[in-house]
Amino acid sequence: MFSRKTAAGWVLMSWIPFLCVSSEKCPAFCICDNIKHSAACVKRNLTEIPVTIPQVTQKLDIKGNNIKVIPNGAFLQIPYLTYLNIQNCNVESIEEGAFRGLGRLSYLNLGLNKITIIHQESFDGLSSLKQLILDKNSIEEIKPGAFSQLGFLNFLNLGENFLVYLPDMVFQGLQQIKWIRLSNNMLNIIADGAFATITSLQRLSLNNNELQYLPTEALSKLVNVIKLEMGNNPMTYIGEEAVNMPSLKILLMDNMALQDVSHKAFEKTPKLTVLDLKNNQLRVLQPLDGVDQLKVFNLTGNPIICNCYMRPFKEWMDKARINVDLICAGPSTYRGEKLEAIRPINLKCESYPEEEHLPVLPVTQKPKKEGATPCPENCDCSSDLQHSTCENKGLHKIPKGFPPDTRLLDMRYNEFYTVPRNAFSDMKNVISLHLQNCKIDDLQPGAFLGMKKLVYLYLSDNLISTLNPAAFEGVPQLTYLYLEHNRFTSIPKGAFKLLPNLLSLHLQYNSISYVTGENLAGAEKLRWFYLSGNNINYIGSDAFNFAEELEKLHLDDNQISEVPIHALKKMPILEELKLSKNPIKQIGNFAFLPLADSLKNIYLDNMGLEKIASGAFAGLGEGLRELYLDGNKLENLPSLDNFTSIDVVTLNNNPFKCDCQLLHLRK
Length: 667
Description:
By secondary structure, the chain is mainly beta. It has a domain at 585-667: Leucine-rich repeat, LRR (right-handed beta-alpha superhelix) (Alpha-Beta Horseshoe), CATH 3.80.10.10. Helices cover 6% and strands 16% of the residues. Strand 23 (380-382) and strand 24 form a beta hairpin. The chain starts with a helix and ends with a helix.
């Protein structure tokens, strides 16, 4: 039996190691807290992992240094770490065994570095890790088995990297993963088995990638995912049973290029409650099958025509009591009204002759299967999807013989040079035509004759320098015209006079140097006009006289030296104005007054802007939502007190003088 004195001796002896450890000297360039067991060596220009951190440290923050390599056994001296931040340290590589010994670590942040490859042994030893942050690196490849030892990981952030391809079993080993973030990569291929074995996943973020088709087979493995983010991918069509995810409740497919959605697209997603399709290119929708639990359906920002073709959808949403957010783009009688406020019986076509020939998407009708589907040699034609493609086939002549019910025709990456008259005369049902990167320099009169239902025409990345208005003869429903990355030096006069329904015109990244009113005759219904990345240095006072319906105008990355206030007077409903990356040094009083009643978003960033007059924003008030002023040379700002509803103001990278002149901003 121990005496009281002996027991006291044992207690004292048991504390000796900890007393010695806690008295370890903290590096001079760090701040150590032995009570909270934390150490911080932030922005000290360190080139190596510090080796004399107190052993009992549980939280280590070394962000903002210059540590290019994390060597083998870098943290063996501090085995009690649970939190480690190595963010923004210019890390290029992680050696095998770099994190060995950190069996208690639950949080690791390696974001904002320069890592290009995740090797199989990169995260050996992190058996308790729950959160791994790898965003904003340069990751191009993930080696097989890279995550095989991270069985307790809950959150993996791989956003803002350079991933193009996800191979089979890439996430093998993540047995308890709940959320994988892959946003803002360059993904265009996802292998069918990419998500196999990670049945615990509940949220997947694939937004802002390059996916042209929904990876249906890969996603079908995710039987427990509740939320899927797919927005900002260049998809044009969602086919039958495309989403096969039995637990999915929230699906975000906003800001894509969707032109058609099958009424059976979500038939195998019975628990879907929130569906977001805002800011796509849908003109009509049918009632959706199999979504009995759907409660919220966002369709704002789509050019949907509220006529008889939308009546079945309206009756369905009313009967199912679904909250559908949809503002009609037409006909003129209902433009700007919410669909929920219109009675189904009032959704008519006969009263509006100009709408009778709008493209109707007959997604309920399946193509006839009598014999083989006709298709030109070297092309692929899908009867089920009603898509035909001859992409990158080295063609020199536009082929004939496509299925007559084709709605999407893709011929990008060929060498046509010219589009002759009647090139598509037998394609009367095509809604979307892709001719990007085809070295086209000539569109002959009647080039698209017969395409009565054409809505989307992609002519980007060609050699076109001029346009004959007759080229667009016979396509009265053309709504979206993409002409960016061509060789225009001016906007061709009268080129759009045969396009009465032109809504969105893309002329970015050409060599246009001026804009005047006579250039845009015939484009009176234009709502979105993109002129970014040209050489514009002159805008006539009559340039936008046609633009009474213009809502969005992008003039960024040009040579404009002052806010074109005289040209802005004819745009009563303009909501978004981009002037970023123009050499505008000063903004005078009342610069945006003509737009005071409508303007919501102003982009004035990265211009070298030196001064904004005190009355520059006069008239702007509660309507303004976003103001971008970052990347300029501003030392102070006028009062922003009138912006009572603003959501975003960016001011970083300006040499502000924080004196009394900025007191209003602080308040």
